[in-house]
Specification:
single chain; Rossmann fold; Arc Repressor Mutant, subunit A; 2 domains; five-stranded parallel beta sheet; four-stranded antiparallel beta sheet
Length: 268
Amino acid sequence: MSGPYPAGLFDLHKIFTAPAVLLDTPSVVSAAMELPHVVVIEDEGIIAAAVAARLRSEGFSVDVAHDGLDGVELVEQCRPDLVVLDLMLPGLDGLEVCKRIQRHRPIPVLMLTARESEADLLVGLAVGADDYMTKPFSPRELVARVRTILRRAERQAERQAERGAGAGEKVAELLDVGGVNVDLDGRRVAVDGQTVHLTPTEFDLLVQLARRPGVVFTRDQLLADVWGYRDGSGARTVDSHVRALRQKLGAALIRTVHGVGYSLERPG
């Protein structure tokens, strides 16, 4: 991975010393529970080892790959609960890896990047990443984001199971705002009758806004309700996902209230 960090040592120092910025979460996992399994795909050995060690200390089972091709193979073999994926990898870059591992089933992905480019981040979200972190990062923040993404995936699975159990017993819940049709039960979105693919996080963000059209949500509210981040960290995550939704659904649908947040607008 190319980047501004000399020999990886600066990254390692930051990973172990950066201040924590997210809500603390329990680190003790019952021995009776199956450990959540994470695959880390990172070509900088010193960073991969530090991330894996931190996750293991917090109760996760971890496997590591150091290039894109090995990462894809490892994910296919062990079917992890989540992938921590570096954007800049040898062999296959992180974007191609993300597309390949999502081919057969959705897998939660937390992308790591040393680049601040908004275009890179939007492409990462478009190919299926649930969230991203910019290096250097706090290890506690990484663990908290991993836990939050896994909780959200678990809730989605529970909702799908409930829909299957109650099939035919209730009318599907639909939202229709400005030509955007949202099927909450099927987690499907259509614009003017054409299906639009959204990532799980994009869908949850859209639903949060669409349930109360015209209401302005602050970034902190969206971070808490959609991502589960409760200290305001990650405002750029909200901005990036809003930009991704505008690209897919139309720029006029979501209004920016400068200095406050966002609102989903009904056509006037």
